[in-house]
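User: Mind token order:
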Amino acid sequence: MTEIPQQECRYLCPYCSRVLDSFEDLKAHVLAEHRTEPVPTPEGLIHLTVNGQPYEVKVDPEWTLYQLIHDRLGLTGTKMFCDRGACGSCTVIMDGRAVLSCMTLAIECEGADIETVEGVAATHPLLIEKYAEHHAMQCGYCTPGFVVTVKALLDKNPNPSQQEIKEALAGNLCRCGTYPQHPVAVQEFVKERGSAKNDA
């Protein structure tokens, strides 16, 4: 389990999603603001890191990772399309591997390191720029899942071939039919990133 220093932990209210600095603050908040609701207990708490920020969050057994990320943490870049693990729109990176957050239980994510599209956009803005420049999106709803899947691929294979990109993205669906542009955008990103490194 990942050790998270107590002073850096955040506690998320299960009723209004307010983030508090300690479990005692969480209990006091619930007693003051949600008097008709049960006071949380340490049971059901999980520790995880999302986009570099450590959290300690009370989760219900049936919550999915998608619900935790999107509904509780407010990271709305992760999208829900099919809710059946078939479209890839809810993809996040967990411990270096692309996973479907709609098919992953939050309770299984104890100690996990999660990266969402917000984290990818913060660390790899050039990748987002290339997606826009090469029209690898139209309505944009599926784009976060594609971008996160590509980031997971690039973490393992910094210079993938067109075929490797297509294979990595095979589980992501796009209703607008932007498929041909994804390898173009990714390879242009790889090329420009390589040039930037060489110039440095």
User: Anything to note?
Assistant: The beta strands are 11-12, 19-20, 45-50, 53-58, 91-94, 97-100, 113-115. Residues 1-7 have pLDDT under 50 and may be disordered. The CA atoms of residues 87 and 173 lie 5 Å apart. The longest helix spans residues 181-199.
